[in-house]
Q: What sequence folds into this?
């Protein structure tokens, strides 16, 4: 017998439709029942690819004994954190405040009004290894509600007040902004750098693409190789480790060890989009072909395995298949030799650390213990021959792997995560010269614009199987603005800037905190929760306010729109405390600060020939230009009619004497143009 979750559109909620727990989705029916019956709420939050969410479901939510305890004494609500990040954000902060840590599954107990009073993450069904059992906790919480309710309500009020203060920070006056905060943040982050293995901290180890991008920018600004070294060591070590899928491309969520060997095998769209972006920028900065290869393979993974027929990209792939974590990805030497032959198979096993004893539960996760160049040199092999043969071997094993039972996939489409991917794909189309990646980026953006908006033109957050729903959040708007700007730079179509400007106006109209600055996470007409948060701290994705400031400042530097520039500046001023006192979680804000405080180079390319323009744009994208924007179009010798959105930057700029022409500008004031292909390539050759 199914429960109410059977009517949901969320793959995560549908996973729980057959639980004996009397689950409700978040909504008025559940909340009103809690108030009417004066029952506390048990709120469980997770997501479809979450391994420990599956474990807790099997151990607790599928068990009639525990289900009976929950059903008798609580109103039980299940939430997909990917659909409702607004709910997740509030209660994750509460769990962290209560326990000092967070994660999923999140298990939270609330008053009928939604105020949190007790919580945690994963609980075993019964007490073990020093952890309290979920059955014990359920009984204890129910007993406290029945016999010590005044204390519970007081605790809930105190926690709600704490959340109000911490999630709606107020700036102290109108503080100034200083670039020295970037240096201080990089220095603080560098103190946790693992020089041997790359990355930050020990175990578990997460990718930090936004931190790496901040350090790459700081290297570019200062010329200090220390910062570039942190980036390149980390990118190299991650690409060699088991966290990277050497057969199919793409990265897992994180590594359970310090050297990136054993991943938590779930694959997330946002990780792969953000990591592809930093690998592309690493390639621009260094010319390291390995970085370009990893970026290409990661994006090809998304296109091959995660692209929905609608043209947008799915959310996640599970860690588990056939009930076992990582089963889809691991190998034995006998399997490899069977499909590659003895000589090639044994060589492959040696290079990719596939052994009889294994490195993960008796089997082996592919990883490179040494770079291929060193392997080829030490064995007297030609590097290019080895590289090509290994590529053939990986392709063969990928074909074999695809015959296995694949991990489950969450086939939702989320605007913000798709926007991160569109941004990376647009950049890749220029850096790698890959027209297919541009087509996918354009298709996903077009789908969002035509199918994930209301009749009033407001964004919707999620889509699945023909249905778009849920009001969008500020990070949906901000990341999509960023993506549309990147699409304009990639293909020169001014409709992307017009759409970005429309979204920016909506974001300012509906999400702005007109009193203190910055942006609320939800719109002014969104469903009311216990508080309206302001998101300043990066997590696995950029913070809402960091991305909003970044998007607005980039858009302003292309369009000259003073409203956007002023809003970005005010957002940064509202975040001074975060940037100065909590810099470890503020990289996106600090990246926006770097653009805001420094001149932006505005490159305008005008060329009568589409073929020639493509070649010149490719030259632009080969260099790392963190403080630059590009506007390029095919044009005749006379000034064409242009969209008003980009009018200021293009005004007066023509193809001089019918030749390709490059204008280099700052604050819409330009130097003498470079005319002719040779002169333009020379001008673009320096890393500006």
A:
């Amino acid at each position: 017998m199914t429960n109410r979750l059977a009517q949901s559109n969320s793959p995560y909620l549908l996973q729980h439709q057959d639980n004996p727990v009397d689950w409700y989705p978040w909504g008025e029916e559940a909340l009103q029942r809690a108030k009417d019956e004066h029952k506390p709420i048990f709120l469980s939050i997770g997501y479809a690819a979450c391994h420990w969410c599956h474990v807790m479901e099997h151990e607790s939510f599928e068990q009639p004994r525990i289900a009976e305890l929950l059903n008798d004494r609580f109103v039980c609500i299940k939430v997909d954190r990917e659909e409702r990040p607004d709910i997740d954000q509030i209660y994750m902060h509460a769990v962290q405040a209560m326990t000092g840590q967070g994660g999923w599954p999140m298990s939270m107990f609330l008053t009928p009004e939604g105020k949190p009073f007790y919580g945690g993450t994963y609980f075993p069904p019964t007490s073990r290894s020093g952890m309290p059992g979920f059955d014990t906790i359920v009984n204890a919480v129910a007993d406290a509600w029945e016999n010590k309710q005044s204390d519970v309500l007081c605790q809930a009020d105190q926690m709600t007040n704490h959340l109000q203060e911490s999630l709606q920070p107020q700036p102290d006056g109108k503080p100034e902004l200083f670039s020295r905060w970037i240096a201080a943040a990089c220095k603080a982050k560098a103190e946790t750098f693992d020089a041997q293995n790359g990355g930050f901290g020990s175990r578990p180890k997460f990718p930090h693409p936004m931190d790496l991008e901040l350090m790459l920018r700081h290297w570019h600004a200062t010329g200090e190789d220390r910062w570039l070294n942190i980036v390149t060591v980390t990118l190299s070590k991650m690409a060699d480790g088991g966290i990277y899928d050497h057969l199919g491309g793409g990265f897992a969520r994180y590594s359970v060890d310090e050297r990136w060997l054993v991943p938590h095998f779930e694959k997330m769209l946002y990780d792969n989009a953000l990591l592809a972006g930093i690998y592309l920028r690493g390639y621009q900065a260094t010319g390291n072909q390995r970085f370009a290869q990893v970026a290409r393979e990661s994006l090809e993974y998304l296109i091959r395995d995660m692209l929905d027929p609608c043209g947008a990209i799915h959310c996640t792939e599970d860690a588990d298949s056939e009930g076992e974590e990582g089963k889809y990805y691991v190998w034995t030497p006998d399997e490899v030799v069977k499909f590659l032959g003895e000589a090639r198979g044994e060589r492959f096993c040696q290079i990719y650390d596939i052994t009889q004893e294994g490195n993960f539960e008796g089997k082996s996760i592919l990883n490179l213990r040494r770079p291929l160049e060193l392997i080829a040199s030490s064995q007297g092999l030609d590097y290019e021959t080895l590289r090509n043969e290994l590529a053939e071997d990986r392709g063969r094993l990928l074909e074999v792997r695809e015959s296995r039972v694949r991990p489950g996939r969450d086939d939702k489409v989320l605007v913000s995560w798709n926007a991160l991917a569109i941004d990376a794909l647009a950049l890749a189309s220029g850096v790698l010269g890959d027209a297919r990646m541009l087509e996918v980026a354009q298709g996903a953006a077009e789908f969002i614009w035509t199918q994930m908006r209301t009749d009033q033109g407001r964004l919707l957050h999620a889509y699945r199987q023909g249905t778009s729903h849920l009001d969008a959040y500020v990070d949906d708007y901000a990341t999509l603005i960023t993506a549309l700007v990147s699409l304009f730079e990639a293909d020169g179509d001014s409709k992307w800037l017009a759409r970005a400007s429309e979204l920016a106006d909506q974001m300012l109209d509906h999400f702005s905190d007109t009193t203190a600055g910055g942006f609320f996470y939800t719109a002014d007409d969104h469903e009311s929760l216990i508080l309206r948060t302001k998101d300043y701290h990066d997590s696995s994705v950029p913070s809402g306010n960091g991305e909003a400031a970044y998007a607005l400042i980039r858009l302003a530097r292309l369009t000259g729109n003073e409203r956007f520039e002023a809003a970005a500046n005010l957002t940064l001023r509202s975040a001074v405390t975060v940037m100065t006192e909590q810099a470890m979680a503020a990289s996106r804000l600090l990246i926006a600060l770097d653009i805001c405080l420094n001149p932006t180079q505005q490159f305008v390319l005008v060329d009568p020939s589409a073929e020639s323009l493509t070649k010149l744009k490719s030259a632009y994208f080969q260099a790392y230009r963190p403080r630059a924007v590009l506007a390029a179009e095919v044009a005749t010798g006379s000034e064409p009619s242009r969209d008003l959105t980009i009018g200021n930057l293009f005004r007066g700029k023509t193809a001089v004497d019918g030749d390709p022409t490059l204008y280099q500008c700052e604050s819409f004031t330009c130097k003498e143009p470079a005319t002719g292909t040779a002169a333009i390539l020379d001008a673009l050759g320096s890393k500006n």
